[in-house]
Specification:
Blueprint lengths: L20 H14 L5 E2 L14 H12 L12 H13 L5 E8 H13 L5 E6 L3 H10 L2 E8 L5 E2 L1 H7 L4 E7 L11 H14 L2 E5 L24 E6 L11 E7 L2 H17 L11 H6 L4 H21 L4 E2 L8 E2 L2 E2 L5 H12 L1 E2 L1 E2 L12 E4 L4 H19 L3
Parallel strand pairs: 1-13, 3-4, 3-6, 6-7, 7-8
Antiparallel strand pairs: 2-9, 4-5, 8-9, 10-12, 11-15, 14-15
Helix pairs in contact: 4-5, 4-8, 10-12
Amino acid sequence: MKTDPGKPIRPARRVAGVTYAVRDVVVLADRVARSGKKMFYLNIGDPNKFDFATPPHIVEAICRALRDNKNSYSPSSGIEEAREAIRAEAGRRGIGSIRDIFVTTGATEAIDICFTALADEGENVLIPVPGYPTYNAILTKLGVESRPYFLDESHGWQPDLDDIREKIDSRTRAIVLINPNNPTGAFYDRDTVAALAGLAAERKIVLFSDEIYDRLLLDDREYVSPASLDPSAPVVTLNGMSKNYLAPGFRVGWGIISGGSAALGEYVEAVNKLLRARLCANHPEQWAIKPALEGDQSHLQEVVAKLTRRRDLMMELLNAEEGISCVRPEGAFYAFPRARIAGSDREFCEALLRETGVVVVPGSGFGQPPESGHFRVVFLPPEEIMREACEKIAGFYRTLAAGG
């Protein structure tokens, strides 16, 4: 039998539309870095790449687990100590009617498992635009429609509740809420969150509440979980160690399913089927969850102070440039500036990278129209690096606007 060694292996059609702009931009950045240009990485939300470090008591908890040979498989839903700590923290947040708690390999795995257990091909999930691209990537893989609801830049990137309500139909299975929002840094108040929880309860659809940045609020705001406001609402609350506890490489996340028991019973079992099928999350790292949630929280004060200073500096420098505007972020460590440009956002960001070494992510990677001129930056670097990077962005834009 003759074979054709040159015949390509056809990949599955389900991945054709999967993109992840935050990492995709690194391909070009690596080429530019090899040329010797000084680089400014404002593209990825990894605090540990800068002057942030995981709190020592959390690191020690994992070291102790390793020394104690806690290197076996764990229960599929996570170790009991971790799940009880998550339950206690949920209680402190006022979340009741809890139906299940499970630990995952990062919050991303929780999203994947929960969507896979919920939605079939041809159904739809409402996602914020701009919003975190992993949601769209997972839904694309599943053959589920990502139905956008648009955040309003002129009103601080707040959701339009009437728009959301109009986009729900008989095939809608869930609404995604990212609060604080990635990529805009917008924060949603109690009334907005309560309205979304009420809508989920009314329409019998699941509200996914992504709370991964819930402790990184920059202006003395009070965080409210939607699951705490309407105990009948079917809510999947998502969180983890990566952002609040400065441990993205641990890949430790969790989900809490809450709401009316009669409506959620079959869904909870479907989630657990998938949890069992993948065995378990990272085991030693799970022993850091209780120390993180119940131990010393003093690092948060320092983190928020740093981020506030860097946010304010970035806002001052970018908004001073005519033709660039940026809504003030109130949480997380992202901002979503807009530049008045003639071409696409991707062309702008690639040219910026080649000319200045500043790596940002085009807004179209988060669902924005390419012609809108948005791009995402992180304000994680120290002030001196932030200043130089923002000055390079402004200088590049000035030259571009002048036709240079």
